[in-house]
């Protein structure tokens, strides 16, 4: 060790080198990608860090309170909404969801097996993304699910895990069927407004102030990928109808589910995402019942060596809309600990449009981190500790000295 340099200093230098290497091919040096992280403990923000540009056109710098399309962490927020409805006795996790939808939901290969919310939210229902999950405004979910590739014909519902984005439009449709409310508005009423956060799905219920602060997502080539808004809401909050029109009043409750992108379309700032993390860690009592929180964050599925597709060890345990990292006793093939310390954490990862994101909470200490990094290449190098990217590991590791 060189004189005058502590272990923490050297560690931070190594982290910086890893992150720089992983993003070296991302964007021109004069336009550094946005990177934001917030740490929290017991419901309060401990630190925040933001670098890079939220909008290269204007040169606006990223801030911790700028909303970004957070990708699959959206699934965790939807699960919070579902569990609020469970607490209100408006949804039952184990009931046949056909009763809420108003039309039969079945895997054609297993027509006698009912499908439940518990299965959909734990990715054990047998739904697959082979039919895609981007429905147009005038698409019908029941018809969509009859397409080839929408179902696993080898495993009955309830046991085999395979991560599928299409699960979430079905969940959104179930929520609409149970309440008679449109998904985006329902999420605002159930989750965002009670927590006092300015978040939304596909920009519909966010404030004008939030829209003005949107983080533009860029591909690793530098091309705009998403949300180049310049202060204006998108002309259509989802995929337009097949004739190009976007009359949202024609959206049919419990018949589409995908239009507002429940699988990945949440826009939220890291300061607000930390508040969702505080709920998950039990730092904001009263939002969910203790029973619902415990159910949501407990393993509904865990890999036993053959009962699921782990995607190279990325998924090894899953709750209800919640990834569980480093669960004790998991097989050696699991590489799901980007922290590298063997501690169980709960939360979710996100990946889309050049963004990598994470919300992770230690349920014992109630300490957590919410972060995103943009312009990450699709073939970004993996980290040294896990199957997560080096960019994600570096964002996490940069905060660890503050937690020790």
Write up this protein.
By secondary structure, the protein is an alpha+beta fold. Helix content is 26%, strand content 15%. A 6-stranded antiparallel β-sheet has the order 2-1-15-14-13-12, sandwiched between helices. It has a 3-stranded antiparallel β-sheet with strand order 5-9-6. The chain is globular, with a radius of gyration of 20 Å. Residues 1-18 and 23-29 have low confidence and may be disordered.
Task: Give short descriptive properties of this protein.
globular; disordered N terminus; alpha+beta; about 400 residues
Low-confidence stretches: 1-18, 23-29
Instruction: Summarize the main sheet.
Output: 6 strands, antiparallel
Figure out the total of helices: 12
What's the quaternary structure here?
single chain
Instruction: Note the run of SSEs as H and E.
Output: HEEEEEHHHHHHEHEEEHHEEEEEEHH
Strand order of the largest sheet: 2-1-15-14-13-12
Mean pLDDT equals: 93
Structural shape: globular
Distance between the termini: 20 Å
Secondary structural class: alpha+beta
| Beta-strand share of residues | 15-25%
Calculate Rg over CA atoms: 20 Å
Task: Indicate the percent of residues in helices.
Answer: 25-40%
Structure summary, number of beta strands: 15
In a few lines, what is going on in this structure?
With 404 residues, the chain is of the alpha+beta class. 26% of the residues lie in helices and 15% in strands.
Q: How are the SSEs placed, and which strands pair?
A:
Layout: H1 7-22, E1 35-41, E2 44-51, E3 53-55, E4 60-61, E5 68-69, H2 74-87, H3 98-101, H4 117-121, H5 141-144, H6 167-179, H7 183-195, E6 200-201, H8 208-212, E7 217-218, E8 224-226, E9 266-268, H9 270-280, H10 290-297, E10 301-302, E11 317-318, E12 323-325, E13 345-352, E14 355-361, E15 367-373, H11 390-397, H12 400-403
Antiparallel strand pairs: 1-2, 1-15, 3-4, 5-9, 6-9, 7-8, 10-11, 12-13, 13-14, 14-15
């Amino acid at each position: 060790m060189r004189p005058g340099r502590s272990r923490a200093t050297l560690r931070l230098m190594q982290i910086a080198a890893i992150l720089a290497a992983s993003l070296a091919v991302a964007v021109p040096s004069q336009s550094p990608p946005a990177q934001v992280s917030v740490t929290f403990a017991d419901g309060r923000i401990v630190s925040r860090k933001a670098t890079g540009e939220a909008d290269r056109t204007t040169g606006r710098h990223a801030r911790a309170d700028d909303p970004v399309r957070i990708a699959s962490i959206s699934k965790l927020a939807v699960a919070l909404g579902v569990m609020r409805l469970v607490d209100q006795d408006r949804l039952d996790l184990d009931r046949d969801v056909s009763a809420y939808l108003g039309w039969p939901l079945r895997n054609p290969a297993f027509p006698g097996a009912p499908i439940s919310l518990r299965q959909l939210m734990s990715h054990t229902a047998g739904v697959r993304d082979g039919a895609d999950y981007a429905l147009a405004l005038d698409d019908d979910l029941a018809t969509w699910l009859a397409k080839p590739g929408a179902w696993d014909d080898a495993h009955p519902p309830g046991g085999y895990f395979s991560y599928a984005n299409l699960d979430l439009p079905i969940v959104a449709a179930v929520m609409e069927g149970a309440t008679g409310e449109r998904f985006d508005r329902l999420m605002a009423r159930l989750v965002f407004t009670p927590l006092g956060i300015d978040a939304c799905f596909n920009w519909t219920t966010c404030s004008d102030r939030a829209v003005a602060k949107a983080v533009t997502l860029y591909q690793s080539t530098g091309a705009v990928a998403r949300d180049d808004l310049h202060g204006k809401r998108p002309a259509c909050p989802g995929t337009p109808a097949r004739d190009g029109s976007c009359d949202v009043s024609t959206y049919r409750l419990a018949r589409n589910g995908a239009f507002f992108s429940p699988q990945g379309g949440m826009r939220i700032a890291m300061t607000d995402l930390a508040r969702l993390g505080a709920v998950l860690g039990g730092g904001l009592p009263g939002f969910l019942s203790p029973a619902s929180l415990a159910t949501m964050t407990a393993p509904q599925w865990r890999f036993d060596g053959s009962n699921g597709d782990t995607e190279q060890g990325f998924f090894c345990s899953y709750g209800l809309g919640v990834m569980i990292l480093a669960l004790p006793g998991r097989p050696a093939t699991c590489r799901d600990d980007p922290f590298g310390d063997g501690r169980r954490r709960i939360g979710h990862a996100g990946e889309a449009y050049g963004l990598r994101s994470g919300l992770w909470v230690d349920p014992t200490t109630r300490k957590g981190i919410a972060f995103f990094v943009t312009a990450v290449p699709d073939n970004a190098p993996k980290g040294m500790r896990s199957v997560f990217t080096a960019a994600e590991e570096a964002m996490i590791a940069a905060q660890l000295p503050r937690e020790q």
